[in-house]
Amino acid sequence: MAEQGSGRRDKPAEWIEKPVPETTAALLAAGYGVLAAPLARRGVATAAEAETFLRPHRRGFHDPFLLLGMEQAVERVTAVCRDRGTVAVVGDYDVDGVAACAMLTAVLRALDAEVVPILPNRLTEGYGFQTAQVEKARRARASLIVTVDCGTTSNEAVREAIESGMDVVVTDHHVAGSDFPSGAIQVNPHQDGCNYPFRHLCGAGLAFKLAQAVLGRSGREEPLAALLRVACLGTIADVVPLVGENRVIAALGLQALAKSRSPGLQALMRVARIEGPVSSTQVAFRLGPRLNAAGRLASADLALRLLLTRDTAQATRLAGELDSLNRKRQAEERRVVEEAGEAFSSEGPGPGILMAWSENWHRGVVGIAAGRLAREFHRPVVLLGVEERTGTGSGRSIPGVDLHGFMTGFQARMARFGGHPQAIGLSVDVSELPALKTEMERAANWPPELLVRRREYELDLAPEAVGSGLFRELAQLEPHGEGNRRPLIRLRPLERSGPVREFGRNHVKLRVRQAGSGSRKSSRTVHLLGWGWGERLADLDGLFEVLGALEWDTYADGPVIRIEDARRLQENEAAGAK
Hints:
Low-confidence stretches: 1-7
Strand content: 15-25%
């Protein structure tokens, strides 16, 4: 049985227009029109900065040697490559760690090193660089271990590697730990003393910077497209802010993905039904989950082999396996969300943090289930799967709550712990779980305003303004992701223009028009798409308004508003909105 908590789901959200920065006026004067306010909200202040944002270019990459520790890391890596020595590249089992591991493995092999890629098994080893991976590197006779997307808090494993006679280079983007062994080299923009201009690179982003530096120092041509198409997978899937250098990695990487000759990526895109240009949404919801499924339910080595293979038949087989695992992952995730959601539901407002565990939950899916429930209940959520007296799981936060900082205060009750402000991983002895839950709930006294669900929109429009021209304008803000979400549009006042068409699992499509426009030929109709909105739209007969994102419907070959929220309008509200 899952432990019981309390919470409240489906509470109506407040609709709030995002503040309009003062810099909007300058951008309007420069001719950016409907893009002026969205650009200003993303930190753009001048026309020159707008051009840099709207047209990502490799000029936006910073010198990798500005990263603290990079000079020493490159010296050690290039020395092993010159001697044709053996390097163990230790990654993680998610998309970011696998992509970073695949990238460095390919680069170092091209520089004549013998490379042994090592990925942990989520179910038998858990997260992070551990002594088990040190032993694997020792058996492979590696003289150097390079970690990617892990290692910054793995002091025991780092010390054991050094004592075994191996050099260690740690590249990681998680919150830096204390007492890092002095005999190792660390490349982490979050470590004390690092003044790198951009602190939000993910594991694959740091692997890309190391690859750039090593290739440049070795006098080799940089295969930028090949590096970026892999780096963008980790950058988008790991939900780091898609601004600054990450925006350049994502934008150029997506272009490279569409033209990829990699048999593995081609096969993956086929099973994901992606043709032509590749969007950040497709990476986040089609490619990323399939790559992640390997590490969640089986072995991340499947995803690694797919990214590294040059054999078309093997790529097709591996992509099929990943697709099957992803379907199984989806079923497991739905079950955990349903069971944990029922455990959290109650009449009261609930505690500031929600926690549950069960022997029936697969440890590989509790993290993504926690993310869904955190969005649904608008509270940080921690879920654990229990096996052999140990609960292993993940937590996901909400905007404004540093979950990693909060959980640091309870480390004494945890066997393992790590992560960053919005996502954590942990292992806890079952005997400690009830006390940990109680202590967390008592301490989770967030400011009340953080627990109010808000929908922040950027544009307030009438249906007449929605069309292909607006889509082309807003499409310049791509690629979208954390820190650069697709702008929400408040569309009002609306009335239906035709029947509602239902499809799939409670999904709907319908046409709407401006309320009161009647059947005028000049009245523009707008297509709405509602994923999971079949039952809720029944309450919106008459006049209403929606919040949604403007997307392109490939089936209808036209723009469509994907519904995020909707509510009724009174007659006086509709009149005021016209």
